[in-house]
Amino acid sequence: MPVPEEAPDLRTRLRETFGPILAGVFGGGLTGLSALTLVAPLCRNVAESYSHFPGLEAPLIAVRLILPLWMTPLAVVVAFLGLLAVGPLVVRLVRPRDRWADLSAGLTAGLAAAATTYTLTLGWPAVLGTVVVPTIADMTYLTGSGVTPESMAERYPDLGTVEPEKRGGYLMAKVISDQAGGGAIGVWIGVFLSLMTAGTLGVGGALAAGYLRRRNESSRVPAWSYLGLTVPISITVVQFALAIITAFPQVGHENFFRPHLIPLLGTIAFAGLCAVGVVRRWPATLQVPVTLCWFVLLVQTFRQQLPWPLTEAAVVLTGGLIVARLFRRDTRLTPCATV
């Protein structure tokens, strides 16, 4: 007769139910530090603008916030480390038994991290970038001197067929329409970026941490293996998301894919090889070159400052090293035990 399992106590139920949410909010909350470095100049500009209107009530963001220069890189590092910690923290709190439990807890943590990141970090800049920035040229023109119905027709030839006294209203309607359309796109971009950054790290981190914990047969998650599974893939996902977003006219003026397609595909391929190396327990003499090659391609995608022969040589040499290791019997790369 099977022995019934002992029902978990209240503490265990609370930990398993709310643990992923708390882990996601913790990781997403740390990204708010990086948002401070982005909005500080804007807050100062708003405060400076309203200093000329002492009779009006200034917005809440009208604060002369001054941050030291060293805080920007520190905030970015802390935000990234906070998101990386979501996965191990979820596994520590929930202690999932299999991959499906990893996925369930990771989805909850990822959604909580994405919602927090959108609220504190990415939502406001995304909306500003698609509502305010594209209409600055029109607003500057409308508030400039010498604006006449004739100059409007010269700047906007489509207004040439409109009655002169109605051109100003049509132009203002155009600006408001641009802001309305940009607002919708800004919300979508902010949510998309939040899901692709904090959401990806939350889900992927929980899957990686749970897998490594069971493979290690202890409560400890090996740091090097965890970083090898999460960092290249998560950064590559963010890179791909940015490439998609720059295709929007409100964000970028050229398609990111055309000049960066080859290094982008290479970055994706080597990010996958980094994960394969951890799963199949490749030796460090192979994992390190693969990771370095991924980093070279990542830099080439964003900067394109490295000579192409150097990048091609890194890819060819690393690929040759993988092939050589695969076909050497004494150092054959064997898969790890399945979970």
Structural description of this entry:
With about 350 residues, the protein is an all-alpha fold. The chain has 2 domains: about 210 residues, no CATH class; about 90 residues, no CATH class. About 70% of the residues lie in helices and about 0% in strands. Helix 4 packs antiparallel against helix 7 and helix 9 runs antiparallel to helix 10. The longest helix is centred in the middle third of the chain and has 50 residues. About 30% of the residues are buried. The C terminus is likely disordered.
The average pLDDT score comes to: 81
Helix-strand topology string: HHHHHHHHHHH
- Helical fraction equals over 70%
Q: What's the number of helices?
A: 11
Largest sheet features: none
- The fraction of residues in strands falls at under 5%
- Gross morphology is globular
Q: What structural class do the secondary elements suggest?
A: mainly alpha
Distance between the termini: 28 Å
- Poorly predicted residue ranges: 329-339
What is the count of structural domains?
A: 2
- Global Rg: 26 Å
Strand segment count: 0
Record keyword descriptors for this entry:
disordered C terminus, 339 residues, 2 domains, 0% strand, globular, mainly alpha
How would you summarize what this structure contains?
With 339 residues, this protein is mainly alpha-helical. The chain has helices at residues 10-50, 71-84, 86-94, 99-131, 136-142, 149-155, 167-216, 223-245, 257-279, 284-302, 308-326. It folds into 2 domains: 10-221, no CATH class; 252-339, no CATH class.
